[in-house]
Amino acid sequence: HKFPLGPDVRKSDADPFKPKLPFDKGTDAMRSCTGHYYMGCHEDTSQGAKTFYHKTIEKKNQKKMTPTVCFEFCSSVPFSSYFGLTNGDTCWCAPFIKAEETAGFCDMPCVGDAEHTCGGQVLSSIY
After folding, report:
1. Do 82 and 126 contact (CB within 8 A), yes or no?
2. Strands 40-44 and 99-100, bridge-based pairing
3. Is 60 helix (H, G, I), strand (E, B) or coil?
4. Are 108 and 118 in contact, with CB atoms under 8 Å apart?
5. Does residue 84 register a pLDDT over 60?
6. Among 19, 52, 60, 123, whose CB has the most other CB atoms within 10 angstroms?
7. What torsion do the CA atoms of 37, 43, 45, 51 make, to the nearest 10 degrees?
8. What is residue 1's predicted lDDT score, i.e. its pLDDT?
9. Which residues, other chains included, contact 59 with Cβ-Cβ below 8 Å and sequence gap of 6+?
10. How far apart are the first and last CA of the chain?
11. Which neighbouring-strand residues pair with 82?
C-alpha cells in the first residue's frame, strides 16, 4: 500500500504519493553530473553559522564566483550540506538552512559566468 506523505512534504502533481525534488534526489540527472542540486531562490533565516568564501580564501587565491566555484569550496568545508549565492559574488556554506519563501528575485548574474544567476540583492540561490 502507498501512504500519503506528511503535510510538510511537497507532492508531485502526477503522483500524490511521490515527493517532488529535492526530496527525491535520486531522479535528478543534473545532480549526478554536477554534485549539487538547485533548491530555489529563498531567504535563509537560520541562525546557524555560515562559512563565507570571501572571508576564508585569501583574495589573491579567489576565483570569480559561479555555482561550481561555490560548490567546490563548500565541499571542502566540514559539515556543509547546503550552499548559497547572493548578490552575484557572495558564496556561503551551512550545515543546515531555514529557507523562507519571500518576495524578491535571484536575478544577479554570477561575476564568473553571466549565463548563471548567483542570488539577488537579498535572496540566495540555494543548493
Report:
1. yes
2. antiparallel
3. helix
4. yes
5. yes
6. 123
7. 60
8. 35
9. none
10. 33
11. 94
pLDDT at residue 28 tops 50: no
Kindly state the DSSP code that residue 6 receives in the 8-state scheme: P
**Any idea what DSSP says for residue 8?**
T
Supply the pLDDT for residue 33.
Answer: 60
40 sits in the region (left: phi over 0; alpha: psi -120 to 50; else beta) called left
Average pLDDT over residues 55-75: 97
Q: What are residue 34's phi and psi, to 5 degrees?
A: -100, -25
3-state secondary structure of 54: helix
pLDDT beyond 50 at 72: yes
Beta bridge partners of 94: 82
CA 122: distance to chain centroid?
A: 14
Residue type at 19? Answer: P
CA 18 to CA 20: how far, in whole Å?
7
